[in-house]
Every structure is written in structure tokens, then in C-alpha cells.
Amino acid sequence: MTGMNGSNPVSMLQKIKRQQLRITGLVQGVGFRPFIYRLAQEFGLTGWVKNDGEGVLLEIQGINCEAFSSALYKQRPALSRIDQIKVKTVTPVSLEEVFLIKESQGGEVVCDIPADIATCPDCLAEMRDPLDRRYGYAFINCTHCGPRYSITKSLPYDRAQTTMAGFDMCPTCEQEYHDPLNRRFHAQPTCCPDCGPSLSHTITEIAHYIREGKILAIKGLGGFHLVCDALNANTVQLLRERKQRAAKPFAIMVAHPEQAEFFAHISPDERRLLEGAARPVVLLKKINDSLPETIAPNLNHIGVMLPYTPIQHLLLDELGARPLVMTSANPGGEPLVIGNDEAKARLAGIADIIIDHDRDILIRVDDSVVRQDGNKTTFLRRARGYTPCPITLKTEGPSVLALGAYLKNTICVTRGKQAYLSQHIGDLDRATTRAFLDETIDHLCGILQVKPQLVACDLHPDFATTHKAMDMDLPIFQIQHHHAHIASVVAEHHLKGPVIGVALDGFGLGNHGESWGGEMLRVDGLDMARIGHFTPLAQPGGDKAAVEPWRMGASVLHQLGRADEIETRYPDKDAKTLMLMLDKGLNAPRTSSAGRLFDAACGLLDICETSQFEGHAPMMLESLVSKIDIDPEGWNIHEDNLNLLPLLDKVSYLNAQSGANLFHGTLIAALADWIEKACAREKITTVALSGGCFLNQILSQGLIRKLQKAGLDAYLNQQAPLSDAGLSLGQAYLAQLYLEREN
Ligand code: ZN
Ligand code: ZN
Ligand code: FE
Q1: β partners of residue 456
Q2: Within the chain, which residue ranges are assigned CATH 3.90.870.10?
Q3: pTM above the 0.85 mark?
Q4: How far is CA 454 from CA 394, 436, 475, in A?
Q5: Cα(691)–Cα(487) distance, rounded to whole angstroms?
Q6: I need a surface site. Which of 259, 265, 629, 743 has the fewest CB within 10 A?
Q7: What is the whole-number distance in angstroms between the Cα of residue 67 and the centre of ligand 1?
């Protein structure tokens, strides 16, 4: 062995070291081995690297082992995630001259599947280069980008397990695939125009249809989108009619953030979110009405995303600065359409033309929806680009499966310290969504290769998830809804000891069959005590009251002793029947729900006659807020319960905007007062906030600020959604604790 720079060979020899590095995390399918290979060359090291069932294993030999290790961590590939590097010194090997990428025995064994990733800048440059062999190719991808989760059936992650299995690589692609220095080394979905999938129409044709005002169904990464010209108000209206979606906002796709600046305000953080590899829909504040009002009626935010597939880039390149409506093709709230035949059958009445291709989508993954709140990102929907990236728990535990609740459902599977929250599944009121729930359970457990030891679900006996849990051949652990909400915050923030939890949502079954939703809980792991709640209101008509805010308005008037006003306030409603329900307590169950309290305010202010989607009326109320007003007499705390009827009484005499201002300001002040008193009484300074009502930005931001001022540590969900879409994380965390306690 000779010294590399001609210095004394004997002293060099003493400095030569050999180390074995075991790296775990998301280190496969993200270009990790070529990166290691190049780094070893750079530091003049010999040895080898390979993938195995635990991650990446490598040995390095030379005089720069330490420098290599720190560079490895600092320069790791953008899409990778390193959980741990274990270093072991081993005996140097003589006569080793090169660094090798070893083929794993029995093919690629991959322990983690990456999320689907937006087309990378290198691929975009090739796609736009007329001299490149992939010029204009709609399926270009590489190790740094392209489909992953949505096309992968199971482990090991190699081409045979993806929906690319049917496409044989051409000799040129094959060469790239086997070249360690190529960007497509072991890029499982790699292909080119000679050997890969093809699109049913040319980009020129597709652009032509858009300009003509047609509605298109275009196959994307995790499902079909319905697409049209966002500036054509007639087409947007037609899409609403055909999709039977009266008010739920549509997302917009623009080529560059600059194009969104014509109609929305974009902060530097929001721009980073828009441009990130996950490419979520980002909710931005509207600044004017340059887009048709029908895109997001009566709301002051608009959902915007940038293109993330080659097809979308090619289409926007062709169309120039034209924003597109890009909404999930999920007719009538059914799961997203993913198959070509399915698209013909289910989208025929909605889309004028169907644009598909022959790369199958294995599992549907909706677009993610996020919002920037101050310096934090809030998930409204966590799906494409994030699933299946795990949320790391504080400690390792046995594998469990948590099935969530009912609305906006997701499931969660744990493996070791990692909690894998599934993509958005949807409301489980349809057989098709329930079938998707089954698929998601199989798919997620399949790609993680885990056999759960326990299934966790809600306390509600009639939820589809509870039925499913009962049907599985596993021990069951049922968890109270709001306990799970608070546990989801505890789990992701690694909170220790008891916390004061405030869960505000629409509905969850209480410990003794009550209807809960405005709850203060003392939570210490598996122990939960309900230490306070909102003063219950009657909910006349049961579930109907959750869609018709006037019913809750009338209920409040009745409770305030102003029942005689109901008929005059709601002249075109069946006020007589409602009065009867309230007088006799028939079909008017009492609920401590915060969601219904918001509905009551909307009903009293005559905002939103019928909610078109969950949270619709409260979103309209929030959009009206221009400043915060506080009525110091708007609430009282009686036997540790929060009574907001005085506030609703005041609100009922105001116009919509003043009412919205007073309602928000007073609710924040009341909650802060209620929480501070409970913290003092219980001698706890950690507060966990969760539940769909906290999606209200004014409420959550205002309350967090007040609690921080009072010296309390207040936490909201950050990585999981605040709504029931994050519930399965809390269930999974508690189920792990439960199993550990039982064993
Ligand atoms: Zn790429
Ligand atoms: Zn090829
Ligand atoms: Fe909930």
C-alpha cells in the first residue's frame, strides 16, 4: 500500500482505518448508493456499499473515514432521511483498490418506499431540450423524482413490484439503470419514449381542448383530475353543475408562483411550500377577484399548486400564463378515479374528453392541502408527496393498526418508532370509500411488511371503522374520540407527563354515550379525565342540524328564552316543527360540540343556509372577520364548564361582520380564560389543542398567542391534520402504550 500524496508510507499505513456504517431511514430509492460511491471517490476511500433489509450498509477504508462520515450526513440526497448512522471500526482489508456498489442478493430489498415526488429540475431540463432523447416525454423521471408510492404494490421495491413491470427497458434505459454514476441508476420507474408508457392525446390536442373551454379528465400521479380553463367562468360553472358540487372550492394550478400573485398573496414561506418536492395545494389569501368567484365562493382563501408531473409541465408550457382548475375527479364524494376503464364509466357525464395513459396507478393518492400559519405549516389533507413518510414517535413499540373514525378518514400503522399515517381515504358513508379503506389497510401493511398485533378504533359502535376492526382477526382497543385527538398532539410533539387537552370538533361519542365536541380533558398517556366541557345545546333534527345552521340558531334562541323570535327570524323554514322538538326534547339530543356552537353563530347571523361540505358555514364566518372584538361578559365558567350563551345572545343582535368579529374575539378570550384556570387548578403548564375547529386560523393563532403570553406551552397538530384525518395517529400511539402496559 502506498501513501496517496507520496508522504511516508509507514505513517500512512498507521492512519489507515476501516469502518462499517449502518444507515437506517429513508435511504433506498432516493439515489443513496451513487451518492456514497461519489463521496468515497472524493475522499479517496475503498470499500463497498449495498442495500439490505434494514437500509444501507457500507464499509470504507482509507485515511479520511471521519471526514467522509460528516460529509455523508451534511450532503445526503435531498429526498433521503437519515434516522441513524451506526459506526463500527473493523479490521482493514489488504489489497483493496476500488470502491464498489454491491448488488444486493435476491434483488433489491428495500425497507421504505418514498412518497411520490414532483418532476426534478434535471428531468425538466431534459424534457425541454430538443436534442435530448426524452424531449417532450410525458413520463420522464429519475432517482430524484417521479411516481413511487402510487405505483408500488409491495416490497421489495423494484420494478417488478410496480405498475412499470409490464414495460421492458430498452437497451439505452437499461444501460443508464445499471450505471452507478447515472442519475437513473436503479430508478425503478425509469423509461423513455422507446420503451415507456404513452399518452392518449398529444399535448397540442389537450391544450386546444382547454382553450376551447372543454372540461377534461386528465390522469395524474395519484388519480384523475378534472381540468379546465380557470379564467372561463362559464366552463367553471358547468364543471360545478356536472360535478354536483355547489360551493366546495376548486384548486388552481399555475406554471409559476408569479402567476398566482395576480390573485393571491404569497409569502416567502408559502412560496417555498408551493415549490417543494411534495407540491401540495397551498391555501393562499385572495387579493382580488381576478378569478371567477365560482372557484372559491364566499371564501377569502384559494388553493393553488404548481405542476408536479411531466404532463402538467408540458401542458402549462403550451398554454402559457393560463391558470387551470385542477380538482380531484371524485364524483359525488366517491373515492378518486384511478383506472382508465373506471374513468370512462364514472367520468363520462362530467368530462368532455378523457386523457389517459398506460401506466397504471396502483393506489389512489389525493393532492395534499396545506396552509402556512405564521412560521408553521398546517396540514388540511396529508396525502400525495407526504404519504408514506412516517411521523417519528418518542419511543419504539409493537406494530399496531389504527383505523380512525368516520369523516375525512385516514389509518395509521406503526413500525418501531415510526407511525405511518395513510393518505386521505374520505368519508366512510359509501361502500366505495369503505372498499378503499380495505385496500389502504392491505397496501400500507404490505409496503411496510408489518403484521399488526392490535387494531385500534373509535368508541362509536356504528362507525364503519369499528365494524371493520370487529371483523379483523386481531385484539381490539377502542378509544374515546377526543382522547385520541389530544393523544395525536402528544404523540407528534413527544410531550411528557399530563397535559390539559382541549378538543374542539363536530362530534365524537363520549364515555357514556353522550355527544361530545367541546371538551377539556386531562390526558396522561392512557389515562383520560373529562375535566370540563362547553355548556350543551340541543341539536334539533340530529344530524340535520350539522348542515342547516338555522336549526342551531333556533336552538340557542329557545335556550335563551327567546323562542317567540324563531318564527319571525326563519320565516321560510318549518319553525313550528322545530319548536315542538325543542319544547318536548324530541329528536333534539344535547351536545357539547364546538362545531354546533359555530353553526349556531352562523344561524343567528344568517350566514350559509345549507352547509355544502363539512365546516362550510364556519369557514364563511371566518372569512367575514375584519378585526377581533371581545365582550368581557360574553362567557362564564360554571362548575369548570364553559358557557358561551351570553356571547351568542349578543351576536344575535349584530350584522354578519360585527357578529363574526365579536364571536371570534370573545371565543378566543373565553377559551384562554377557561384553559388558564384549569392549568392553575391542575398544576399543569402543557396544553394540547386538536380537533377540526382549530382549522379556523383566527381561533388557533389567537388562542396560541394568548396561552403563550400566559406562560403556558401550547401545542397544535403539526405533522398530522387537526381534523379527524389525524385521529388515527393518536389512536395508534395509545394502542402502543396499551400493548406495552398489557405485556
Ligand atoms: Zn428527475
Ligand atoms: Zn427506454
Ligand atoms: Fe373529531
Answers
A1: 402, 477
A2: 203-370
A3: yes
A4: 19, 21, 5
A5: 11
A6: 743
A7: 29
Answer positive or negative: Cα dihedral of 55, 61, 62, 65. positive
For residue 146, the CA-to-ligand 1 centroid distance in Å is 7
Which residues of the chain are in CATH 3.30.70.100 domains?
Answer: 17-101
Say which CATH topology domain 203-370 has: DHBP synthase (3.90.870)
Say how many Å lie between the CA of residue 693 and the centre of ligand 1: 39
Task: Please write the tens of the pLDDT for every residue from 8-65.
Answer: 555 555 688 999 999 988 888 788 888 999 999 999 999 999 888 788 999 999 999 9
Separation of 122 CA from ligand 1 center, angstroms?
A: 6
Which ligand is closest to the CA of 695, given by its number? Answer: 3
Ligand in closest contact with the CA of 124: 1
Residues whose beta carbons lie less than 5 angstroms from ion ligand 2 = 170, 173, 192, 194-195
- For residue 312, report the distance from its CA to the centre of ligand 1, in Å: 15
Q: Give the distance (Å) from ligand 1 centre to CA of residue 138.
A: 12
Banded model confidence at residue 4, pLDDT cuts 50, 70, 90: very low
| Gap from CA of 459 to ligand 3 centroid (Å) | 12
Residue 500 predicted with pLDDT over 60: yes
- C-alpha 601 – ligand 3 centre gap (Å): 20
- Is the peptide bond preceding residue 156 cis, with omega within 30 degrees of 0? yes
Pick the closest to residue 718 from 498, 493, 393 (CA basis): 493
pLDDT at 108: 44
CA-wise closest residue to 619 among 644, 599, 645:
599
> Domain 17-101, what fold?
Alpha-Beta Plaits (3.30.70)
